[in-house]
Amino acid sequence: MTAKHFILATAGHVDHGKSALVKALTGIDPDRLPEEQARGITIDLGFAYLELEGRAGSLPASGEVSQPGAGDHAQAHAAEMPRDPGAAGVPYHLGIVDVPGHEDFVKNMVAGVGSIDLALFVVAADDGWMPQTEEHLQILTYLGVTRAVVALTKIDLAENEEGVQTQLRENLADSPFAQAPVVPTSVISGRGMEELKAALVEVLSHAPPPRDVGKPRLPVDRVFTLRGIGTVVTGTLTGGSLHRGQAVVIQSSGKTTRIRSLQNHNRDVEASSPGMRTALNLPDVEDSASMAGVQRGDVITLPEWSGPGQTMDVVLERSARLSGSKAGAARPLKDGSLARIHLGSTNVPARIFLSGTSQLSAGERGLGELRFEFPIFAFAGDRFILRDWSEQATLAGGVILDPDACRKKFRSEAQRRFLEQRAQSPNDVAAFVQSQLARDGALARPGLLVKSRFSAAEVSEAVSGLVAEGKAVACGGWIVEAAWWQGLRQTAMDAIEAEHRAHPEHSGLPLNELRATMEGRWPSAEVFDGLIADLCRNGFSQAGVAIRRTTHQPSLPPHLRAAGAKVRAALSAQPLEPPSRKELAPDSLAQQALRFLLQTGEAMDLGEEVVLLSDSFARATEAVKKFLREHGQATAGELRQALGTNRRIVIPLLERLDKDGVTRREGDKRSLRK
Predict the structure, then answer these.
(1) 209, 248, 212, 206: which is closest to 231 by C-alpha?
(2) From CA 401, how far away is CA 418, in angstroms rounded?
(3) Which of 219, 290, 625, 643: CA 20 to 30 A from 274?
(4) 371-409 pLDDT, tens per residue?
(5) Cβ(480)–Cβ(527) below 8 Å
(6) Following CA atoms 194, 198, 203, 204 in sequence, which dihedral angle do they give, to the nearest 10 degrees?
(7) Among 598, 86, 173, 113, which Cα is nearest to 394's?
(8) Rounded to an integer, what distance in angstroms lies between the CA atom of residue 106 and that of residue 616?
């Protein structure tokens, strides 16, 4: 049976027994540094591994696992949670990240919990709820962690076990862990270890597998060099799989390399998937912060995504629980504040700018912009932690809404609406697509939301849904917002109608003029071509290189109508003996009118000097054909007499009929072509 991989991280106050609990569960001491061994506290991240087997049923009935409220309430809560029907017998492989609990090392704690599926929330029975217990809870909440098992450690030191559990439940109230199972444990006596494992299995049986969206990212939390092997980086893989030999890029430096080998908990593997602790051997990479190196906080990912950004628009959230936190944490977050942003395994200085307010108080939520001192790599939908500049207090959490924001547009109305829509539904791919369409009007489908936590299939499905609902229009490789498209169509239609009114004599508006009129309204010629095709399906048509309303019939403008009437009269008075072209159009107005008649086909020229009405030419053609059918052959003189015209007219007329394939000249005679 295929194992399910998840990442678990500890959380809790210093000296509450997190590392000892991990060692008791796994047999692995996560405190690897000599200083940690000497001081007896965790300073940096530690790592361990635990294999559990799913089992039928739910939590053990030994009474060692506390559920909130009365028994009926607990059973009702368990019934609400969908359980994996194949959980019994399923092996769970847990990568464990042990984090420091001391307030001086919260930045290291945040680096370890950015990509976890489950928290092992540790509270010591003798100390109870402490400052870092509260801060760690707020951090996990900001990061969107919703699953936890609470370990009530050092239970053998509790004077009133029931009272301790009651107080613990009160502190967990109104938090994501309010319904989490509480397991009393003691690493001294071994009490609660099996119950703790059972509780972990039970919670994991309701957890969906880590998402694979085809966008692997490995936030680097540890870098070291091995003799004969080279540089090795470790981290928790999210978003997609990596395999041996694959080309990767180190962000934010942009250096490219390849994966020489992979390991998962000291075992060589061909590939690593989301939810696995992963070690990568990267050739030609130094263990340093140089452009040729790699360090904690970097991200190993694929070359397909665009690079890092230095400005990101976000939604910020400040916990209502801050009012009871340590001094400084609850003070208002002011516009323009300098703070440190913890994202993945990195932390970066940034200025915080707020939208629509000068400050954000505890319990409030608002839009903001992060302006980093140097670029970082992030996706839309990523969660982060905001701490004060001195790293003494956690002030807020947030979600990145636009990883490639523009500082100049931050306070614009369009950007505000864009951010508000995303902030309301940070996990809704359709909301992200629709918000970007509303702001930008037209989007290239291949690169749409590439820097987001959504898969290409999810984005494509959202686009198709919007098109089906009439909220968007597909245009080749582009998708355009329906209202924007209607505005574009209306602008084009207005331009065509204006051309018809200003120049009714023209067949339509030249396409190059329409393109120039609307220059800057679309990002690609493909969108313009799609617009023309749309117009031609809805009451317009192309006339050569121009576009016109289908019902448009060219006509002379008012100032040429009198001249046009004179030209028509002159051509109609003697249909086959019209005046010469010079006599027909002696002035500019007459010349313009004649040009219109020729362009619209009402008249036609038979050379430089002869112009006939098209109807007159048609009648003359029929007369010639009739005469030749009756006589077989005829000279130009005979045809001139039959038509009742003169040589000035008949010669260019017959030459035109020869050219059109109506007649054929043989010597001085003509006959009909077969």
Answers:
(1) 248
(2) 9
(3) 290
(4) 999 999 999 999 999 999 988 899 999 999 999 999 999
(5) yes
(6) 100
(7) 113
(8) 96
∠ CA 339-340-342, nearest 5°, is: 145
The helix-helix angle for 614-631 and 647-660 (nearest 10°) equals 80
pLDDT score, position 1: 67
User: Which residues, in sequence order, are CB contacts of 7 under 8 Å at separation 6+?
Assistant: 94, 95, 96, 97, 115, 116, 117, 118, 210, 236, 275, 277
3-state secondary structure of 318: coil
* 3-class SS of residue 210: coil
As a whole number of angstroms, the distance between CA 145 and CA 143 comes to 6
State how far the Cα of 82 lies from the Cα of 157, in Å rounded to an integer. 36
Q: What is the C-alpha to C-alpha distance for residues 35 and 51, in angstroms, rounded to an integer?
A: 29
| pLDDT at residue 58, as a whole number | 45
Q: What share of the chain is helix, strand, coil (3-state, %, to 5)?
A: 35, 30, 40
Whole-angstrom CA distances from 254 to 221, 231, 249, 302, 383 are 18, 17, 6, 10, 22
Q: Supply 7's token pair.
A: 């990442």
Q: Is 576 within 8 Å of 624 (Cβ atoms)? A: no
Helix (H) or strand (E) holding 340: strand 337-343
With b for 16 or more beta-carbon neighbours within 10 A and e for fewer, the 598-637 pattern comes to eebebbbebeeebbbbeebbeebbeebeebbeeeeebebe
HSE, CB side, 13 Å, CA atoms: give it for residue 150.
Answer: 30
CA angle centred on 254, ends 374 and 387, rounded to 5°: 30
Q: Distance between CA atoms of 547 and 538, rounded to whole angstroms?
A: 12
For 56-93, b/e burial (b = at least 16 CB within 10 A) is eebbbeeebbbbbeeeeebeeebeeeeeeeebeebebb
Q: What are phi and psi of 318, to 5 degrees?
A: -115, 125
CA angle in degrees (0–180, nearest 5) for 351-353-355:
170
Determine the Cα–Cα distance for residues 494 and 540; give it in Å rounded to an integer: 12
List, for the chain, all residue ranges whose pLDDT scores fall below the cut of 70: 1, 33, 36-41, 55-64, 66-88, 289-292, 324-327
User: Cα angle vertex 168, ends 163, 173, to 5°?
Assistant: 130
**Which pTM was predicted?**
0.80
Q: How is 391-451 classified by DSSP, letter by letter?
A: SS-EEEEEEEEETT--GGGTTSHHHHHHHHHHHH-TT-HHHHHHHHHHHHSEEESTTTTTT
Residues 178, 218: Cα–Cα separation, whole Å: 31
Residue 146 burial (10 A CB sphere; 0-12, 13-18, 19+): middle
State how far the alpha carbon of 352 is from the alpha carbons of 316, 342, 380, 384, 623, in Å: 10, 13, 18, 13, 89
Per DSSP, helices labelled H in 148-238 are: 161-172, 193-204
List, as one string, the DSSP characters of 224-249.
Answer: EEETTTEEEEEEE-BBS-EETT-EEE
Burial class of residue 313 (count of CB atoms within 10 Å of its CB; 0-12, 13-18, 19+): buried
Q: Go through 405-443 and write b for each residue having 16 or more CB atoms within 10 A of its CB, e for each that does not.
A: beeebbeeeebbebbebbbeebeebbbbbbbbbbbebbb
- For residue 92, the cross-strand partners are 4, 52
d(CA 268, CA 26): 20
